[in-house]
From TrEMBL:
Protein name stated in the entry: Phosphoribosylformylglycinamidine synthase subunit PurS
Gene: purS
Entry EC number(s): 6.3.5.3
Organism whose genome encodes this protein: Roseobacter ponti
Principal location class: cytoplasm
Assembly notes: Part of the FGAM synthase complex composed of 1 PurL, 1 PurQ and 2 PurS subunits.
Matching InterPro entries: PurS, PurS-like_sf
Subcellular location: Cytoplasm
Annotated metabolic or biological route of this protein: Purine metabolism; IMP biosynthesis via de novo pathway; 5-amino-1-(5-phospho-D-ribosyl)imidazole from N(2)-formyl-N(1)-(5-phospho-D-ribosyl)glycinamide: step 1/2
Length: 76
């Protein structure tokens, strides 16, 4: 069983990496990009029977800094 966790900075939290990407895209001629938010995707290979609640606990305890980041979980 697999799980995919998407972690992004919360709205209102400055994203210097995203701003650097936006600036670099503009320098390359991609003027239509007004903003970039950069995040991360974590793929977990889980043992059968692992619940979504357990993955959520992993996010709360380690995978996301819930003070400044939000996350979503997909179980496949």
């Amino acid at each position: 069983m697999k799980a995919r966790v998407h972690v992004m900075l919360k709205n209102g939290v400055l994203d210097p990496q995203g701003e650097a990407v936006r600036h670099a895209l503009g320098a390359l001629g991609f003027d239509g990009v007004k903003g970039v938010r950069q995040g991360k995707v974590i793929e977990l290979d889980l043992a059968d029977g692992t619940s979504e609640a357990e993955v959520t606990a992993m996010c709360e305890k380690l995978l996301a800094n819930t003070v400044i980041e939000s996350y979503s979980v997909e179980i496949a």
